[in-house]
């Protein structure tokens, strides 16, 4: 799988469409790519995120998740099942530090998804 590792991993992120973790991507790919290591998945996900091909969603006290959707949007993490969901949020930032320069923000919402509430 050496040739095209990043493309294969990127395709898995896009195919899963569930904001997968590195472990979930590894589990999906290892059947067809038995020589693939979890470390290779982690390294390539990091490289893809650094290049801007995918988004890394940092989840406090949990594994990072990865998103193929590159437009500005936020995420909700279900506290029961752990799944991540896309959320469109209108955020107003009232930044009161006159000499500082805000370069961006990350917002992760926590709650219970509709499926888990049932």
Q: Topology, pairings included?
A:
Blueprint: H1 5-16, H2 22-30, H3 38-51, E1 55-57, E2 65-67, E3 74-78, E4 84-87, E5 108-111, H4 114-117
Parallel strand pairs: 3-5
Antiparallel strand pairs: 1-2, 3-4
Helix pairs in contact: 1-3, 2-3
Outline of this structure?
It is built from four helices and five strands, in the order H-H-H-E-E-E-E-E-H. The protein is of the alpha+beta class. The chain folds into two domains: 5-67, Orthogonal Bundle (Arc Repressor Mutant, subunit A); 74-117, 2-Layer Sandwich (Dna Ligase, domain 1).
Question: How would you characterize this protein structure?
Answer:
A three-stranded mixed beta sheet has the order 4-3-5, with no helix packed on it. Strands 1-2 form a two-stranded antiparallel sheet. The chain is built from four helices and five strands; from the N terminus they run H-H-H-E-E-E-E-E-H. 33% of the residues lie in helices and 16% in strands. The protein has two domains: 5-67, Orthogonal Bundle (Arc Repressor Mutant, subunit A), CATH 1.10.10; 74-117, Dna Ligase, domain 1, CATH 3.30.1490. The protein is of the alpha+beta class. The N and C termini lie far apart (42 Å).
For CATH, the homologous superfamily of the largest domain is named as Winged helix-like DNA-binding domain superfamily/Winged helix DNA-binding domain
Strand content: 15-25%
Low-confidence stretches: none
Mean pLDDT, nearest integer? 90
The number of helical runs is 4
Strand order of the largest sheet: 4-3-5
Q: Fraction of residues in helices? A: 25-40%
Number of domains: 2
Order of helices and strands: HHHEEEEEH
User: What's the CATH topology label of the largest domain?
Assistant: Arc Repressor Mutant, subunit A
For the secondary structure, the number of strands is 5
Structural class: alpha+beta
Distance between the termini: 42 Å
**Whole-angstrom Rg:** 16 Å
Shape: globular
CATH class placement of the largest domain:
Mainly Alpha
- The CATH architecture name of the largest domain reads Orthogonal Bundle
Major β-sheet annotation: 3 strands, mixed
């Amino acid at each position: 799988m050496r040739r095209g590792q990043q493309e294969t991993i990127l395709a898995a992120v896009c195919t899963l469409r569930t904001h997968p973790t590195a472990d979930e991507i590894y589990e999906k790919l290892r059947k067809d790519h038995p020589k693939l290591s979890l470390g290779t998945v982690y390294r390539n996900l990091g490289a893809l995120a650094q290049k801007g091909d995918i988004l890394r969603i940092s989840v406090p006290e949990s594994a990072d998740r990865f998103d193929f959707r590159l437009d500005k949007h936020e995420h909700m993490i279900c506290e029961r099942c752990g799944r991540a969901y896309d959320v469109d949020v209108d955020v107003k930032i009232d930044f009161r530090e006159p000499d500082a320069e805000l370069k961006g923000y990350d917002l992760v919402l926590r709650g219970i998804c509709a499926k888990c509430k049932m």
